[in-house]
Amino acid sequence: MISFLKTTAFLLLFVLNPGLFEKTVHAQNDPEQQAKNLVENGQYAEAIPYFEDLVHLYPQDKMLNYYLGICLVETEQLNQQAQTALETSLGEETPVMSLYYLAQCYHAKGNFSEAMNYYNQFDDNARRKEKKNTKLEELKALCEQEINPFSTPEEEDEAEQTEPTTPIEEVVELQPEEVEIPAGLEDSLIHFQVNSTIKYLKIDQFNSASSLQAFVRGWQAEQELHNLTEEANLLRAKYNSAFAGEKEEIANAILALEKESYTKSQLINQNYTQARLGEKDYWAQASPETRHAFSEKIQAMEDSIIQAKEAKRLEKLEAQKPLVLPDSLVQNLTPEEPAAVSTGVVYKIQIGAYSRTPPEWVQRLFKKLSVIRRIDQYTDENGVTVYTVGELKSYQDALQMQSQVRTEGVSDAFIAAYKDGERIPLKEARQITGE
User: Which of 115, 132, 324, 394 is positioned for an S-S bond with 107, CB 3.0–4.6 A?
Assistant: First the structure.
């Protein structure tokens, strides 16, 4: 009984006094402003640690990624970290200089066609004042001649390497068909985003066995995570109807499952990132014609999928039409109305998004919240793990749950919309659902 009272008191304290758990990273504005001041003063190297920490906390923030990217490029660190940050930053509200810096990242890797693409985009969209202090024309001329004027840290490290003291066994790359594919994956649609333009729909589209193997490991971990989630849901249902003396044991079991789920989520993230990087390297070396042809192939596949779904929807509607009965029976029967067709839109409450393991205080908050609500998680095309609660058909219901979740301690929780499993703008979702 005492144990039950302790658990109940804790949960009531959590729900009724959200101020105890309202700590958010948004409250710390000074490091961001300090970092921006360093950039204004040209102290790019000093600003990098600040923006790295901020991007770790806000992996999808376009402006933070923009500042991190330009700091890395300005300090001649034209590496994958800089490229990823700048690709994440791209958007209508981001300074057009992001295109210029991103072009340099590709230029440094010897990917001249992609570099020229971004140089030209910058040239077309930037104002004269923005171009004035750049080396745009010089770099475009070098790019056209396929001359790389940059020296990346990776190239310098490679040049400084000495002969290894012990022989290294030659690595033989396996062919993708040699990778063992688990049941349920071979014929599935995977929707795996490699970069901003290349997406895979089937596993036979992988070009590297090591990348495919990493993807398979990530996919298997995702199935295991699904099983853990189902098990936690069963325990939550059991918790609601359990006797007082059983509740603490069930709550501890739920927390243990959530801890295992966090670990599994990070494993998924790591493997999908590994798979993505391997395939990015392949497409970075491919010709523009090859990339274009593959993109057209994927577009044709997606069009075919959409047509098949539409045909299935129409077939379902046709089956739902009421039967035409003889006049003698119409008087005695009331025809049923066709069942409403689902829009495929659901609303979820996003409570966090992290490219690495969430901070300790966030993990503690999520664990407390998981006793009350089921926390879902998935990894997006940028390798960021997104955490959500709820799955609601109505925007008004979503507003109500958002208010509840904020009261429970996640003060920056917001509504996200999905259609057939794909993230869509909230405005578009409301137009579809007529709200």
Answer: 115
Residues 51, 66: Cα–Cα separation, whole Å: 9
Q: What is the pLDDT of residue 5?
A: 45
Per residue in 121-145, pLDDT (tens digit) is 998 888 888 888 899 898 998 888 8
The residue type at 211: S
Token pair listed for 53:
């920490």
Q: DSSP labels for 273-323?
A: HHHHHHHHHHHHHS-HHHHHHHHHHHHHHHHHHHHHHHHHHHHHHHHHSPP
Burial class (CB in 10 A: 0-12, 13-18, 19+), 421: exposed
Mean pLDDT along residues 22-40 = 61
| Alpha-carbon 345 to chain mean position | 19
Q: Which of 1-5, 40-44, 391-395 shows the lowest mean pLDDT across its residues?
A: 1-5
- Rounded to whole angstroms, the Cα distance separating 276 from 263 reads 20
- Residues forming a β-bridge with 375: 389
Is 220 in a helix, a strand, or coil? Answer: helix
Contact predicate 413/350, CB 8 Å? yes
